[in-house]
């Protein structure tokens, strides 16, 4: 199983185009969107190339490959533009190994505020815009960073799950962080 993770697109066309091109190149079967898809949010500047309808149009071309969760900047009005569901606060992916990926944006559940999970499960979230791939206690924490508004000096990034390795990558092909699960 190969999964591609993107978070915090915030309505930015150039960032979305980069993410979709990288998704195509990756050979991943599924594009996991971890929220804050169309709206820039009140705490963020308006990104260059801000065009939520165009981002929706681009993403809708991949609707049959997308698993998405709602971010704190996503609304029912945003959902009206998208042909794939994205209003759930969380979703699950079950791996062949029996491990579970708990997908969420990060504003309700995150590395510090966890749902009940079993040893070896992975909490996958965005929201902080900071890449993470690590074992924290009995759980793995994975955050692909942000495609549009990276923080703490990180480059724009996305995540991959390939075989049993989670990694966060820059668009220049550098691995920022990784862990085996």
Automatic annotation (TrEMBL):
Lineage: superkingdom: Bacteria
> Where in this chain does the record put each Calcineurin-like phosphoesterase domain?
1-161
Enzyme class, UniProt record, top EC level: hydrolase
Question: Which InterPro entries did the record assign?
Answer: Calcineurin-like_PHP_lpxH (IPR024654), Metallo-depent_PP-like (IPR029052), MPP_YfcE (IPR041802), PdiEstase_YfcE_CS (IPR020935), Phosphodiesterase_MJ0936/Vps29 (IPR000979)
Q: Which UniProt keywords apply?
A: Hydrolase, Metal-binding
- Required co-factors: a divalent metal cation
- Enumerate the PROSITE patterns for this protein: UPF0025
Q: EC number(s) in its UniProt entry?
A: 3.1.4.-
Quote any Pfam family the record assigns.
Metallophos_2
Please name the CDD domains in this protein's record.
MPP_YfcE
The molecular function terms of the Gene Ontology recorded here are: hydrolase activity
Task: Give the record's family classification.
Answer: Belongs to the metallophosphoesterase superfamily. YfcE family.
The protein in question is named: Phosphoesterase
Q: Which organism is it from?
A: Vibrio japonicus
Q: Which gene encodes it?
A: yfcE
């Amino acid at each position: 199983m190969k999964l591609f993770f993107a978070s915090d697109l915030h309505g930015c066309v150039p960032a979305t185009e980069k993410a979709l091109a990288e998704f195509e190149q990756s050979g991943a079967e599924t594009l996991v969107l971890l929220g804050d898809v169309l709206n820039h949010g009140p705490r963020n500047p308006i990104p260059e190339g801000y065009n939520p309808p165009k981002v929706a149009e681009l993403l809708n071309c991949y609707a049959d490959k997308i698993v998405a969760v709602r971010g704190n900047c996503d609304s029912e009005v945003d959902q009206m533009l998208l042909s794939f569901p994205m209003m759930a606060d969380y979703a699950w992916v079950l791996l062949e190994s029996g491990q579970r990926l708990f997908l969420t944006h990060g504003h309700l559940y995150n590395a510090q505020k966890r749902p009940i999970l079993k040893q070896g499960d992975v909490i996958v979230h965005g929201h902080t815009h900071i890449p993470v791939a690590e074992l924290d206690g009995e759980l793995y924490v994975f955050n692909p960073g942000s495609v549009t508004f990276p923080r703490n000096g990180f480059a724009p990034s996305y995540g991959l799950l390939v075989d049993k390795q989670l990694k966060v990558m820059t668009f220049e092909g550098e691995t920022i962080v990784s862990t085996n699960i």
